[in-house]
């Protein structure tokens, strides 16, 4: 029996690489659901090729276009955000890959967990916003959450076969394109420069988050919830070559890491195949021609977003949700040249101070606080 996979965000960087993995192992997996936000043409092309049972176009204005283009095929076409929550509940679905970007991932991920689906989690924002609630729900519903984020997959792989306590997580970071920039240079960097990541080819939002190192802050929060380790035992280490994908140090001082060529198909494939590993044709590390592997401390003075994420995690409650919402607003504003690179952290910090704080939030609270924080951040930009 093939495993049926629902890919939320199939037209994105992770989504398209997941389809490559499915194609490579078409004896084991099938794409049962494909979804996109507004990229109708690519979604149609994918649907014709992979013949899923269902597709969803989140942008409702594109519904007629998609459904007409697929009218000759036995594919159910839906539109809107609610449909994302519906399709993941289908009894046929075995695995839900959350490869959509931002807060929009929270509701469908919760719906999938409540229906006991295996989650291949790329959408880190879900754990940033509501990590406690989501991991609790996953435990209650016996829904496994398998990390797709390369660092978390590396940590997960380092923990395979281990029973002992984690002393420390070493979370590696490439440092992004501005690692060596001075404060003065950072004042004038453009979206075009920020969108050129040295090692990874990713969607625009996460590429900007990598340049500001907010992505690493989010990954600290993600690691806390996935592995139950407090922030003071998660050490961020800048490793520009992105070969050591992350590591775990145990109580005897031993450190286990996972290494490899930067290729997201490795963690995607493992999130589908765990507990076994499948063969792959992806590039291998070339040990005789590997550049020097270097490691250094992050510069929290230059990359203030990383510090703000640690601070949000320390405060807990809805604070990480506020940081995520404000970050989504400034990330887009920076890409649209409505705010500068360094203003991003200023606006996030002010939004943290001005938004209502809820210490023990419910799911509804997260939606209310997300909306409030977006309003505050928008006002600050204007
Ligand atoms: P992307 O922008 O390339 O793709 C996003 C996908 O989600 C697209 O299919 C888009 O149509 C869909 N989408 C966007 N907004 C949506 C919305 N509001 N409703 C429904 N669908 C929506 O992004 P990506 O780089 O593939 O990243 C996806 C997620 O994976 C993010 O959470 C990111 O942090 C995480 N991630 C990505 C990488 C990577 O290498 N790209 C690595 C680690 C983690
Ligand atoms: Mg990552």
Characterise this structure.
The protein is an alpha/beta fold and 382 residues long. Helix content is 46%, strand content 15%. The chain is built from 16 helices and 11 strands. The strands form 2 sheets. A 7-stranded parallel β-sheet has the order 4-3-2-1-5-6-7, sandwiched between helices. A 4-stranded mixed β-sheet has the order 9-8-10-11, covered by helices on one side. The protein starts with a strand and ends with a helix. The mean pLDDT is 97. The structure holds nicotinamide-adenine-dinucleotide and magnesium ion. Nicotinamide-adenine-dinucleotide binds next to helix 1 and helix 10.
Comma- or semicolon-separated keywords:
single chain, alpha/beta, 15% strand, binds nicotinamide-adenine-dinucleotide, binds magnesium ion
What's the layout of helices and strands?
Elements: E1 3-8, H1 13-24, E2 29-36, H2 40-50, E3 54-57, H3 63-69, E4 76-79, H4 81-87, E5 95-98, H5 106-114, E6 118-121, H6 125-140, E7 145-147, H7 150-159, E8 166-173, H8 183-186, H9 191-194, H10 204-212, H11 214-227, E9 234-238, E10 244-250, E11 255-259, H12 265-273, H13 304-315, H14 319-335, H15 341-354, H16 363-381
Parallel strand pairs: 1-2, 1-5, 2-3, 3-4, 5-6, 6-7, 8-9
Antiparallel strand pairs: 8-10, 10-11
Bound molecules: nicotinamide-adenine-dinucleotide and magnesium ion.
Given as residue ranges, the uncertain stretches (5+ residues, pLDDT < 50) are: none
Percent range for helical residues?
A: 40-55%
Structural class: alpha/beta
> Rg from C-alpha positions?
20 Å
């Amino acid at each position: 029996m093939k495993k049926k996979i629902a890919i939320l965000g199939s037209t994105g960087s992770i989504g398209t690489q997941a389809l490559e993995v499915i194609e490579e192992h078409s004896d084991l997996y099938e794409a049962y659901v494909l979804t996109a936000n507004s990229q109708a043409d690519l979604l149609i092309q994918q649907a014709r090729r992979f013949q899923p049972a269902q597709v969803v176009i989140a942008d409702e204005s594109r519904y007629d276009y998609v459904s007409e283009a697929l009218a000759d095929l036995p594919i159910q076409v839906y539109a809107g955000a609610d449909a994302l929550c519906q399709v993941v509940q289908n009894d046929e679905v075995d695995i839900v890959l959350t490869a959509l970007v931002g807060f929009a991932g929270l509701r469908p991920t919760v719906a999938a967990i409540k229906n006991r689906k295996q989650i291949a989690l790329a959408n880190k924002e879900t754990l940033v916003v509501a990590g406690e609630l989501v991991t609790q729900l996953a435990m209650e519903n016996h829904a496994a959450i398998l990390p797709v984020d390369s660092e978390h997959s590396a940590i997960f792989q380092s923990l395979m076969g281990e029973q002992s306590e984690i002393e420390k997580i070493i979370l590696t970071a490439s440092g992004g394109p501005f690692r060596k920039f001075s404060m003065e240079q950072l004042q004038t960097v453009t979206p075009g420069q920020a969108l050129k990541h040295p090692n990874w080819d990713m969607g625009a939002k996460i590429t900007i988050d990598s340049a500001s190192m907010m992505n690493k802050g989010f990954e600290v929060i993600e690691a806390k919830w996935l592995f139950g380790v407090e922030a003071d035992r998660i050490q961020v280490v800048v490793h520009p070559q992105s070969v050591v994908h992350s590591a775990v140090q145990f109580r005897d001082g031993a450190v286990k890491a996972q290494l490899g060529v930067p290729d997201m198909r490795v963690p995607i494939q493992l999130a589908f195949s765990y507990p076994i590993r499948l063969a792959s044709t992806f590039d291998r590390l070339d040990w005789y021609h590997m550049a020097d592997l270097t490691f250094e401390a992050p510069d929290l003075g230059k990359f203030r977003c990383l510090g703000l994420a640690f601070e949000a995690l320390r405060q807990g409650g809805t604070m990480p949700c506020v940081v995520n919402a404000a970050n989504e607003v400034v990330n887009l504003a920076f890409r649209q040249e409505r705010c500068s690179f360094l203003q991003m952290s200023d606006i996030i910090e002010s939004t943290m101070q001005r938004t209502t704080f809820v210490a023990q939030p419910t799911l509804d609270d997260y939606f209310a606080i997300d909306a409030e924080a977006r309003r505050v951040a928008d006002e600050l930009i204007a």
